[in-house]
Amino acid sequence: MINGCVPFSHQVAGHKCGINNTGVLQHPDGTILKQLQPPPRGPREMLFYKQVYAKDCTDKRLMDLQQHLPKFYGTWAPRESPHEQYLKLEDVTQRFLQPCIMDVKIGRRSYDPFASQDKREQQIGKYPLMEEIGFLLLGMRVYQINSDSYITHDQSYGRSLGKDTVKNGLTRFFHNGQCLRKDAISHNVFKIRQILHWFESQTQLHFYASSLLLMYEGSPHTVNGMMHKRAETGRQLLQSNGHFPHETQKSVQCSLTQVGRKCIQSNCSDLPHNLQHDRTVNGMYGGSVEEEDEEIGIDYKEENAGDVKMIDFAHVFPSDSADEGYIYGLRNLLATLEQILKE
Is 147 exposed, middle or buried (0-12, 13-18, 19+ CB in 10 A)? Predict the structure, then answer.
């Protein structure tokens, strides 16, 4: 690959472009490289990042938005192709040992106000329920404890979900093959509420075809909240003590008991009936696990338990009103997640 960059192993959705149609790349320093899309989408996304992260920015709304986005480190171009530009972004998954990741497109429509009629019809045809549901599951990777492997679902799975089954899709993302990670759901809900609060407080931008990246730690072996330096790729963004520069974090105590194939965890639930069926029919959650009784103490840091970031800004436009479409999607997503927590 170019200049030591490799395909990003945790991409779950999005455009595949650039060298060998690989999609998002990872730089040797640990950052993420997203190739600019053709005009006007690529330049529009680059301008959005530059405005939000401008050193002389005094707009409090944009400054508040920074906490919900990947950090932006400017643009990058390979020596061999200096005219091929990439956005250089934070790898928001790097704090996790076994990151579970889901890309959720938010809003009542996935086309912008300047889209042609053909484009509008094409986007509506892809998922007619978008206007009613307000979000679409574009892809996910979920770590399974039993088999020490990932299950993945792409956008075709998300588009197969209807009003009565979209909750099952979200449940599947938070299920590790043994139990439902309600602690991770709670942390993701907290982060989404913060994003909703930002949208309810601003009237200057509208977001179309933009996504939330939902994440949580899938590994039960995070010891004392220490973060894992994955792949040792020269992480220049790491501090010398192996931690990332975040504010003081609260510890959330979580104990996990494994009894054969059963998992009993505070904030965990038994395997839902519909997933039990999938497990039996498809073997999706199969895999060996030691037949032993073992008490494992886990000290999850708050940010390790879950995080949410906004991504994909090729269709962000100035406005003078609230972004009701995005707000509608956030509220519906929150309501569905909160319903899962109550069950």
Answer: middle
Q: What's the token pair of residue 104?
A: 């959720």
Give residue-wise pLDDT tens across range 267-288. Answer: 465 444 444 434 333 333 333 3
Going through the chain in order, the beta strands assigned E by DSSP cover 6-7, 25-26, 32-35, 72-76, 86-89, 99-106, 135-144, 149-153, 205-207, 210-217, 251-259, 262-265, 293-301, 307-311, 316-318
**pTM of the predicted model as reported, rounded to 2 decimal places:** 0.78
Say how far apart CA 193 and CA 211 lie, in whole Å.
Answer: 15
Comparing CA positions, the residue from 161, 148, 197 lying closest to residue 327 is: 197
DSSP letter for each residue of 91-142: -TTTT-SSEEEEEEEESS-SS-TT--HHHHHHHHHH-TTHHHH-EEEEEEEE
Split at pLDDT 50, 70, 90, the class of 263 is very low
Contact 285, 278 (CB under 8 A): yes
